[in-house]
Amino acid sequence: MRCCVPFCENTSDNMSTSERTGITFHALPSEDNLRTAWLRALGTQDHHLPDPAVVCSQHFLDDDFYTTESCVRQIHSNAVPSIVQMCMICLDSDSKLSLMSKHKLEEAYEQLTGLSLFQLCRRGNLKQTLCVMCAQRLINFSRFRDLSLRAHSLLTDSVELHASIMLLPLLLIYVLKLSSGVPLTDDISPRRGEKCGYESCTQAESGLLNVHIVPHTHDDVGWLKTVDQYYYGSRNNIQKAGVQYILDSVIQELWQDPKRRFIYVETAFFWKWWVRQTEEIRQKVHTLVRQGRLQFVGGAWSMNDEAASHYQSTIDQFTWGLRKLNDTFGPCGMPKVGWQIDPFGHSREFASLLAAMGYDGLFLGRLDYQDKGARLAQKRMEMIWRGDDDLGNSSDLFTGVLFNTYSPPPGFCFDVLCDDEPIIDDPSSPMFNVDARVKDFLDICRNMSKGYSTNNILVTMGEDFFYQDAGMDFKNLDKLIEYTNMKAAKDGLNIKLFYSTPDCYLKAVKDANPTLPTKQDDFFPYASDPTAYWTGYFTSRPTTKYFERQGNGYLQMVKHLQVMANLEQHNEFVLNELKSAMGVMQHHDAITGTEKQHVAHDYERLLNSAIEDATIIARQAFNKLAQDDASEPPLFAYERCRLNESSCAVSETTNQFVVTIYNPLAWDTKEPIRIPVKFGKYEVFAPNAEKIDSQLVDIPEAVKNIPTRKSEATHEIVFIAKLHAMGVKSFFVKKINQKRKRDTRKNDYYTNISDYWKNIRDKTNIDIQNIEDVDIKNSYFPIRDSVLPDKYSSNIDNIPILVNYGNNIDGKVNVVKEIDIDLLKDKKITDYGVGEFERIIKEVYGGKSGEGRSFDRRWSYPSLSEDEMRMLSDEPRVVERYDEFYLENEFMKLRIDNETGQITHMILPDRTTNLKIQFSYWTGCYGDNTNTTLRSSGAYIFRPKTKDPYKIAYKNNGTIKGNVVYEVRATTNENAFTTLRLYKDLNFVEHDFVIGPININDNVGKEYIVRYETDVNNKDVFYTDSNGRQLLKRILNKRSDWNLTLAEPIAGNYYPVTNEIAIEDNNNRIAILTDRSVGATSLNNGELEVMVHRRLLHDDAFGVGEALNETANGVGLVIRGVHRILNIDPKNDEELILERKYVIANHLKPVVFVSNAENVPYETWINLNNCFKGIKPLPLGLHLLTLEPWDDKVLIRLENYLEKSDNSTIEIDLSDVFNNLKIKSIRETSLAVNRWVGEMEKWVWNKENDFSDSFNNAYGADYDNNSDWVKNDGKLKHEDNGNAKDDGLKVKVEAKQIRTFLADYDYIPPITKSKFKNF
Known about the structure:
By secondary structure, this protein is of the alpha+beta class. It has 27 helices and 57 strands. Its cofactor is Zn(2+).
């Protein structure tokens, strides 16, 4: 089919080769009015249309499309195409376009130009569209105009109110405010008589039970509906929820009565609502905030998960949300408490981060049912939680557990979504119920108070998407407060009810000066009943979790490059879009995988769109750095590739291309790069014109068969990239033609038998074909590394030949190709042993009895046993056995079982560790969830049916040995494929695996795991990371705070792993580094178990309402993952530090772009600036966590990742760190940049007991709180954090600290290639 738009050449035949991928075709609508609109837009009539008449997707905007639950791309029913789409300002037709109405820019355009586009666009069938850059410029103009008008209005009022003699001081004040970024109006600062924050609180009374009534709504940023569906109140057949109505209604009701209070949490929704409000509504909101009647708690972009989220992403999304609040509402809008009421477990690192952000407290909703029961009985519902042992009391945080999770007390839900009885206060009504309702509520309050240590209780009055009709809630709460207080006063009940907020409740508790218990580990795993362990979501939707991690890599890259390339400020428009998308992804129903399927697709759409928009920053930066001039037209497109599927349209379809890599780490690193290509011979050139080692490796069939993969690549070109700290480096890759050649080697003569055996091992194979004509039909079957396939064992005429790939691929590979041996013979030339070669080939492949022979044995020239061969050799030599072989590099040697292709031993210079990798699967329980015994395994819950998993048998699928990488592959009959790799010069083992589609033909859901089985004697102890930062000790079947009873011994021992899980004994420490967040455990001595994929057929009845049965292209979801295996000496401090460095590097992998270079000769490329060094490598132990533009400043976060020791403090001179930024001055802020460090005041609490110096050391050991763990004065050994003194720009970062600075700087253009030759 062909697009019917005039001059459009897109057809269904050429759409796959179009420059814009993903082109779809859409038939004209049948509905008369819409069809008429289409015809008018296309400037044609029905009788002029071809048959069939279709319009391609290039004539619609991105916003015209949506993706169905089955991943089909459709256009909205009201979408209308246009012949030409271009930016109405710059006339650009290639960039991504969006409607002016999306950002309400029509008025700004008319104000700027004095012109209206309406008539023009109507006459020309055009859409009012803008490109990203022009949209941002127009937004900036609109903001500037508003700022000017508001300043003018304020100055006018000031002139009228003050004598002219006062005007000059006022102007100076306004100028100072403008320079500090404070808004020029008085919307933010409290006016006379107004109080916000703690000062606005109702004073709690001693001797009374103070009942803090806290109205709130919990608005999931996506769950059962998408973000937009929730905001606009769409798809109410799924869930009746509309956030815009909640905020509209709440503001109206708060305005009616100054006693009322309300809290709001999710800045993503609030900001979506705020930008759509009139100035009148905004002024009302400002007033409510200034008076403390509307308070923000949490304040992040979303209420983030605490199991799967990484600490860097958590910090970023808090920084983004809090900045919006701070810029809009100032100190009165600053949240003082964390509000994590719905996440399914709580991490220790999150508590540490909140403390570093300056929060005074944290409130939790969900707690393990056994833990909560014990705390209620012992009045330990409130505690002081230590976030990090090395940081000491600076990481301490008041933490309270809410009594009713976050719901109203039973029977007192007054919302429109509830069925509870309202309070009926008409005495003449037969339904009058005030006395009964008050009595019931008083009983509830008294019962609640039994679990808390002060005379204050917090009663949550809210739930998911409550207050859509806020008048209904507040009217009943008003009555409840009024009549209960009347009853208490009349009967002397010593109880008082009043509207409050979490901030005010916390202040009341602090004023009561209680002595509180302590908490030092975390709140994982969470169980809501004996069979409901919420540990399945640690792994649910693994591809979404992987994509989120990629999104973080892109976000850090574009933030860095925006600063280091000194790009235009309007880029922050797309940078902010990516910040918002990543903030949404941290939501506790996004990254967790606990959302409905169509919502998961929408999350992915949001993130993918934001990444694509934000990569304009990377493209601009790369072009500017390469050509020394941002105005030069770009030479390269810098395309993203789907490397996890070994797919890249550019490298597959061109004979030469450029690979551009950004290293987000602040130290030099080496990383294996794998670029999908078609078969051939390739050369890779570094920026210094050196041809570097590369290797051509075939793509396994399991990867080729990934259902979502759209690629013609058959191989990958592999090389090790040596990358500079926060640097950009480009490599030139070109495909070369290889001439036909023959092996001219004559008979070899040996004076030493050892040389003979060495030559047999390394002997060059005969190459008889043009390399580009070879068709590889199967996987490699290298010499000595696998058994000859059965199809070749008895058919001598169908014999594979051995082809030499030169430098790009292992010489000992088996290319399967039917040939005629006679082709080897040349009648005109003496037979150089071809006949003998034919005889040997037939003997090796056919065998004397017709059975296949193993390539693992030596070529059988002499009839000697292996012992005889060893004795004949002059040099000692280990003879490889038939059932094993080895892979090795400079650091280690791996013993591989030849039959299974699996590792058995990891051999290091000073020790050997048994290591086996075993894939297995658990079968999921299923039931109707009517009681705990019938609980199903689902998106949230992991509940295996058996006590032991089903093991999967492996079969060797071939080995590859080359100059860059060694690989051994194994396949299974259960849709699991595994590859083990050793790279040259890299000190880890890489485990690459493909899982799926998970077979459910037996109607049984399955949860796939990989077990790393070792001889490490870990004695039931293992370590998992907390949000990718600190490691916490876990003990099998044990909790630190209560006596555990386990009805689910498998699921109850699973913990979240963001980056790392490890076990150790005195000699070995085995660490598994993951490429995404997962669930993991150690159920048996020496084992590490990681869950990698889940496919289940039943819902677990916790709200999502559908089974976790992910599909893609009509089949079960296939995932590809990579684990890195480290073997560390636990006694070697240097290796332990390097382990932490590996963890960071594995999380922040280099970002790769590929560009077509068909029209850019190598000679042109080599003269570009292909190597940019952004920063001088930081000293060991220091990580540059953040480099981000912040108005006219730059935001810098420095993290010390060392554990505390005598020399763990690191000093760095910020004036001499960046190569093209000159830092002039710095000012330190809180972690989330929401307050200056000098303005932060740490609350001090009375504690029942001191903290141990190290939780990991103390947990499971016999100790008491008065032992050597603490000093005699009760102060901890490590509580000197923060005592190190800075010297100007020379700052000191202590162990585990993250220090945050806003810096003034000058930009220094980078040294260009013409000035700097040694790169």
